[in-house]
Design brief:
The protein has 341 residues and is of the alpha/beta class. The protein is 48% helix and 13% strand. The radius of gyration is 23 Å and the shape is globular. The structure holds adenosine-5'-diphosphate.
């Protein structure tokens, strides 16, 4: 039985995401350059009647890596098997997955940087020559048997491309980094999702949700659902700017799109470490948070928006962060009011 992607299954959004997840290139908003390159690769592979080259997608969580993998499979008319680095404990698990693949299938490995070294080494010949080497018996009787696999496409996703080993990275024919989405692109995501959910939303309200989604479609969809709940319970129906404002203030999301954890990180750097620099481990300990959560989920957006800077000696807050927190301290009710531009 194929190993399922545990993270996707436990994702609070999973049930709804199935329907909100774009199915084809045409539904996939933004990431224009990356999408175009992959579209060309898919078209070329189809023309040659060959599987597409192995593809590595990097970028923070929720930016659409898994969606792209599913789209590639759908556009190639191929079957996809989804799993994740931490779900493949032993080489045997990987061998089971690989030997079950049919010609042209897609194997999607999320969090591929978390594969163990041993498992990773089994992937090399599989990726390069569509074969795996079994070692049977031990000691002097040990024998290596080659097993030929059907030609397949590996799509790897990673939130930490820097942690990927060079031998693994070099075996991907294509490697793309997904960037945060612009408010305009996220507005399109919100409008599309509202349409799927049969909810009506004003244009300015959709933009307000988009601006507070940390550049991330998954968050845009999550906020849209919170706002929709609020609209359904407190008002009958249509989502207006007032409803977005009330609902997102209740969720602790401010005008710059930062949530409680973002502000906590900034506050700790300012109040405990005098603005920085501070190392990731010290920061995680002071916050009582996982190091990976800070590195993979919180920090990329704070860096991209210039609230923190990374220096050789650690993380430092910017003047923009100090000004933002000071303004909120002086006037907490303004949490939502300022324009985020
Ligand atoms: P990742 O694998 O990078 O964590 P996902 O592909 O699971 O991200 O995306 C999370 C959700 O965000 C999807 O289920 C979908 O609803 C939405 N989403 C992501 N990218 C896009 C996009 N380009 N266009 C529309 N919706 C998107």
């Amino acid at each position: 039985m194929p190993i399922q992607d545990k993270r996707v299954e436990t994702d609070e959004d999973s049930v709804l995401n199935l329907s909100l997840r774009p199915q084809w290139f045409d539904d996939y908003i933004g990431q224009v350059q990356v999408k175009e390159n992959i579209q060309v690769a898919v078209a070329a592979a189809k023309k040659r009647e060959e599987p597409m080259e192995h593809l590595l997608l990097a970028g923070p969580p929720g930016l659409g890596k898994t969606s792209l993998a599913h789209i590639v499979a759908a556009e190639m008319d191929a079957k996809i098997t989804a799993t994740s680095g931490p779900a493949i404990d032993r080489a045997g698990d990987l061998i089971g997955l690989l030997t079950n693949l049919q010609e042209g299938d897609v194997l999607f490995i999320d969090e591929i940087h978390r594969l163990s070294k041993v498992v990773e080494e089994f992937l090399y010949p599989a990726m390069e020559d569509s074969e795996i080497d079994f070692v049977i018996d031990k000691g002097p009787h040990a024998k290596t048997i080659k097993f030929h696999l059907k030609r397949f496409t590996l799509i790897g996703a990673t939130t930490r491309s820097g942690l990927l080993s060079n031998p693994l990275r070099s075996r991907f024919g294509m490697m793309y980094h997904l960037d945060f989405y612009s408010p305009e692109q996220l507005t399109q995501v919100v409008l599309r999702s509202a349409d799927i959910l049969s909810t009506s939303i004003d244009a300015e309200a959709a933009l307000a949700v988009a601006e507070r989604s940390r550049g991330t479609p998954r968050i845009a969809n999550r906020l849209l659902r919170r706002v929709r709940d609020y609209a359904d319970v407190k008002h009958a129906g249509r989502i207006t700017m007032d409803i977005v404002q009330a609902a997102l203030t209740q969720q602790g999301i401010d005008a710059k799109g930062l949530d409680g954890l973002d502000r906590k990180v900034l506050r700790v750097i300012i109040e405990t470490y005098g603005g920085g620099p501070v190392g990731l481990d010290a920061l995680a300990a002071a916050l009582n948070e996982e190091r990976d959560t800070i590195a993979e989920v919180v920090e990329p957006y704070l860096l991209a928006t210039g609230f923190i800077k990374r220096t050789a000696r650690g993380r430092m807050v910017s003047e923009k962060a100090v000004a933002h927190l000071t303004a909120l301290k002086e006037k907490p009710e303004a949490l939502f009011e300022q324009s985020s531009r």
